[in-house]
Amino acid sequence: MAGFGTVGQQVWKLLKEHRQLLSARLGAELKIVKVLVRSPHKKRLMALPKELLTQDSADLFSPEIDLVLELTGQVALAKKLAKSAFALGKAFVTANKALMAEHGLELSEQSLKKGVDLCFEASVAGGIPILRSLREGLAANRIQSLYGILNGTCNYILTEMEEKGADYQQVLEEAQRLGYAEANPRLDVGGWDAAHKLALLSSLAFGAWVDYRDFLVQGIQSISALDLEMANRFDYSIKLLGIAKDLGGKLQMRVQPTMIPKTSLLASVRGVLNAVAVEGDFVGPALFYGQGAGGAPTASAVVGDLVAVGRRLVANRSAIVPPFGLKNKLNQAKLTDLGELRSPYYCRFQAIDRAGVLAKITQILGKHSISLASVYQPLRHEGKKVPIIILTHEAKEKDIQKAHTLINRLREIPGPNTLIRVEEECP
Ligand SMILES: NC(=O)c1ccc[n+]([C@@H]2O[C@H](COP(=O)([O-])OP(=O)(O)OC[C@H]3O[C@@H](n4cnc5c(N)ncnc54)[C@H](OP(=O)(O)O)[C@@H]3O)[C@@H](O)[C@H]2O)c1
């Protein structure tokens, strides 16, 4: 095992506490032989026999070892460990989404070529066994769509802002104090962690490699307490959603804060919890819900992978389950242009409270064939900055983006201005 931090220690605890149960399920014992760490003398919550600790990664590859488990969170080191494991015919299990989103295509090709297991269940949605469900339980289906709340930090922040009417910065700081957000939260609040996970989910669901750098990724940093209050007034919730849809061979993909009807199932996913809604052609809708992070739930997913690999080894089966569910190499996915996508939009403009300003906004929207469903100005302060809220009818993404850019340039509208897509059909 490489790494003995939040997840590594819980894996150790789980293997110890469920030794008998796991032996009964597996028909063999899972034994940790060596644990690679950076600082062997660091004080840790879980005590580990001293002889197990090492700083030398070569110790993970002795002949008695069948499987290398990577829980360091480092990308370059993890890639090196995976390559060494494959070269020596040892299975590789990881919880590292950044590793898989960056190098998953290359690693899965190596795993297939060498006939060595590559498992990464814990890298998406923590304890929820969504990858195995897509790869095995739903293997009979053509997957039509995926909707995911894939980042617990963002979901916690948006839930707290909605429930307490608090501002983004204030809730982010509270989340950091409670350990729900990293000291450097960029990957989470910027949408990149969710993008890594959506790319992996989609590669597996649609059988083509999706690069997270190829689709639209927006974070939650510009969402204000007022946006959540207004969403509530219009009977919506705001969620950081990862959405992937198969539109007949091309994928429509994005990660962005999205307004969804309060009555949708995903609107009821609160706090740090995660959920993935899948639609398959034979199964219809299926919803997976649970803890997307935390040492114990993540350890549950990691050990699930250890058991899956262990069962194959115990049964002496040489054929592996392909990491992305296809026996052949994955092709690159083709993505659609989002410009043609039609949806209603929520716009918040910070404008100088002066006669004629609203007319200027509606004129620009009208010129771009965007009609208004609702206009709301909650405050009045003659000559000062006030928010103007507009909910549009369905409009093309490229039209609303053009109009928004033009409105942003008006002197009377100094901003910051926000645009949020409304997804009426959300499960
Ligand atoms: N935490 C979660 O809730 C969660 C959820 C899902 C997935 N994951 C994934 O699980 C993985 C582990 O996360 P974590 O939260 O357990 O991380 P963590 O608490 O930061 O622990 C990382 C461990 O890796 C060791 N390590 C780091 N760099 C190393 C290096 N260069 N050489 C040797 N050892 C090194 C550290 O050693 P020292 O202890 O000596 O510093 C530490 O034991 C990550 O890929 C993460 O994305 C985590």
Describe it for me?
With 427 residues, the protein is α/β, with parallel strands linked by helices. The chain has helices spanning 6-17, 19-26, 75-87, 97-114, 130-137, 152-164, 168-177, 186-189, 192-206, 225-233, 295-314, 357-367, 397-408, and strands at 35-36, 53-54, 67-70, 91-94, 118-119, 143-149, 208-209, 216-217, 236-246, 251-261, 273-280, 284-291, 331-332, 342-343, 345-352, 372-376, 385-392, 395-396, 418-422. The protein folds into three domains: 6-131 and 295-332, Rossmann fold; 135-291, Dihydrodipicolinate Reductase, domain 2 (2-Layer Sandwich); 338-422, Alpha-Beta Plaits. Helix 3 packs parallel to helix 4, helix 4 packs parallel to helix 9 and helix 6 (152-164) packs across helix 7 (168-177). It starts with 5 loop residues before the first helix and ends in a 5-residue tail after the last strand. The relative contact order is 0.13. NADP nicotinamide-adenine-dinucleotide phosphate binds next to helix 1.
Question: Topology, pairings included?
Answer:
Blueprint: H1 6-17, H2 19-26, E1 35-36, E2 53-54, E3 67-70, H3 75-87, E4 91-94, H4 97-114, E5 118-119, H5 130-137, E6 143-149, H6 152-164, H7 168-177, H8 186-189, H9 192-206, E7 208-209, E8 216-217, H10 225-233, E9 236-246, E10 251-261, E11 273-280, E12 284-291, H11 295-314, E13 331-332, E14 342-343, E15 345-352, H12 357-367, E16 372-376, E17 385-392, E18 395-396, H13 397-408, E19 418-422
Parallel strand pairs: 1-2, 3-4, 4-5, 7-13, 8-10, 10-19
Antiparallel strand pairs: 6-9, 6-11, 9-10, 11-12, 14-18, 15-17, 15-19, 16-17
Helix pairs in contact: 1-11, 3-4, 4-9, 6-7, 12-13
This protein binds NADP nicotinamide-adenine-dinucleotide phosphate.
